[in-house]
Structures are given as structure tokens and as C-alpha cells.
Amino acid sequence: MNTAAPLASALLAAAQVVAAVIDGKNLDEALAAQGLAGPTRAAAQNLAYGALRRYGRGDFCLARLIARPLADAAVRGLLLAALHRIAERPDDVHTTVDQAVRAAAGLAGGNFKGLVNGVLRNFLRRRDELEAAADGDEVARWQHPRWWLDRLITAYPQDWQAIAAAGNGHPPMCLRVNRRQTDAAAYLAVLHTEGIAGRALDDSAILLDKPVAVERLPGFAAGRVSVQDHGAQQAARLLDARPGMRVLDACAAPGGKTCHLLEGADLDLVALEADAARAARIGDNLARLGLAAAVQVADCRRVADWWDGRPFDRILADVPCSASGVVRRHPDIKWLRRARDVANFARSQAEILDALWQVLAPGGRMLYCTCSVFPQENALQVADFAARHADAIRLPAKTTGDDNNEWQLLPSAEHDGFFYARLEKSA
Q1: Domains in the chain, please, with CATH?
Q2: Span 312-347, pLDDT tens digits
Q3: What residues are labeled active site?
Q4: Which of 51, 166, 287, 407 is 20 to 30 A from 269, comparing alpha carbons?
């Protein structure tokens, strides 16, 4: 990189990542393409993720600071990353401006150094005015697209602001201890000896006070613990798979729920994944944890391609969705998704449910789940399915203490947004 300081290098890399996302690329893939390592990668990731979480606000401000659209998307990305750092580090704004100008030397032949300097200094002069204007604009204030906010307002008139705010924050880091090796209380004590603070949420889940690199987690390589959101950990509990049962995880990558199921019981488990590269990650996770499952690369909707004719006692249908409940982990989703995508996901989900119902044994149970907060993918989807299938019995979504047929977890400080519904096939 053509820069003189680590922050400038990180800003330059973040600018390229943000530009790639604006161009329609996946955030993680764009970050990996930079080939970074160590502190520079960590700093660039923080800047890129932060700029995209705040994109609605940053875009609002840039529209008032730049007369004409920028021809170079990376320059726009640099400005967005710099605006994010100014917001995150108000005590260090002059360093941010200086390093952003240095980073601009590595873009488009260095022709935008003056523009970057002028825009950022103009922002600092007009900051109070621009921040007040942004607070008066819902897209800028809540940093979500208009169509997304409209859906939240309709579905959650009392909670939509909290949901949007959660989507703009940093996600919690939750661990799942391998109950074949230890429990939450014992592992928490080990963490504390390593200077890692957290608290147990149940007998296998630990919420860390601050995220740490997995390399710092004692016994991670040996399969003693995994990283999995507490909301996602509910799937294995709700499916209630018992020893010896034949179980299908229909959309299994990267394998967190597959492994959690196997940590709880010895099962005859088939894990399906349509994408070969993602299916390989299931195998990696199973190997690290010392577990075994039959992993197949197949589209679960094409039953004839993978089913051997033996019905399943339990099916986990963790279906592809808008991921609107985990957007703080994937801030590019807010800006890459379109309103029509939700309907497309809903159609695919209906196809998956209808296909999987064929391979469920009479008396068997299927758990439908998404990491979405949009009703079209959740409660409405399950209601439509039950209307199509007279042999579908809707069970209470939770195993104890609640008779509701669905369980919508909204994103919070302890977990992401998830939806669960349990269905039993009449005998």
C-alpha cells in the first residue's frame, strides 16, 4: 500500500472494501480479497463494518458535502470510513483527517487528496448542523433503508426503533460449550483464569463481556467450545432429538446447529448443504469437535437427488432468509438487500417446507427457523404451510411454559433475532 502510517493503510483497505460492497459485493469476500493480516486487517475490518453500519447517516452527510456524485467509488468509501472513525473517535478527529488524506494518495493516482481533506474539514465545521439534519431524517437516524424501516414499523410498532438500534450495534459474542466435555460453569471458571470475563446464560451458553479471538479460547482447537449466538443455540433444544433418532439438518452450513445436536445425543444425522464450499465447513466443524454425520452436497428441495427413502424422526429446517435479525453481524445486508428479496426468500422457504414434509415420518417433528424478523418469512410462512398441509400440527414453539405457536426473538444485548416454530406430522 502506498501509505506511510498504519491507520492510513487501514483506511485505504476499508475504502476498497466499502467500495466493493457499494458495487454489490459481499462484505466478507471483499475484505478477504484485500489479503490483509494482523492489526491492519483488524483495523480495516472495524472501519469497513462501522462505515457500513452507519452508511445511511454517512451517505446523508456526503450528499450535503459534495456537489456532484464521485466518479471513484473507493474515494466515497474512504470518506465513509473516515466519517465513521470521526464518530467513533471524536477525540482524534485531526489524526483521522490527516490519515485519510494520506490514504487518498493511494487512490486514483493521488488526485483526490485535496477533495478528501476539504470534505472532511467542511464536515467538522458543519458537524452540529449536519448531525441535527441527520437526526431529522429516519433513514439517516436509524441507518436502515426506507423499505426496511417501513416493514419494521408495520410489524413492530412499539419495538421498531429498538430493533433498528440493535441492528446498528456491535454483536455479542456467545460461546457454546461442548457438553460431552464440560459445562458452562466449569468452562467459565477456566475463562476467568485466562482473564476472559463473561457470564453463563444456561448450562451450555456463555456470554462474553467483550469479543476475543477464538485462538484465546482454552480448548477451542480440541473442540471444547464453539462460538454460537444464544438465539441460534435454541434450535437444538427445541428440536428435542433423542438418542438413536434419524435426524435431518436440511440447510446445515456452516454446521453449528448440526454439531450442537450431536453434542446432545448420539444421532443418525444427515446434514445437507447445496453449496460445496460451505458443506466443507460442516466437515471441518465436525472434525474439530470429534463428531460424525453424513454430509451431503444437495439442494434439499430436490428430494430424489439425496433421499434414500428412510423417513426422519426430526428435521431442522433452518432456511435461507433475509438475515434481517443478524444484520449487525453482516451490515452489508442492509444495503445489498432489496424489498423484493423478502418475497423471493419466502417462495424458496415454502418450497423447502413442502419438500421436507415428504421425508418426515408420521409422528415426527420439524423445527422451522430463520434469522429474520420479517413476518413474511416467519409467522405468515408457517401459517400458510399449515393451511396447505392438513396433517401438520402446530406445537407450542417453546418446549415449556408458553403456549404460543411461534417464538420470535428480537435482537438484544444477549442474542440475535431468530424465529422458531415446531410442527408435528400427524400419525
Answers
A1: 6-143 (1.10.940.10), 174-227 (3.30.70.1170), 230-425 (3.40.50.150)
A2: 999 999 999 999 999 999 999 999 999 999 999 999
A3: 371
A4: 407
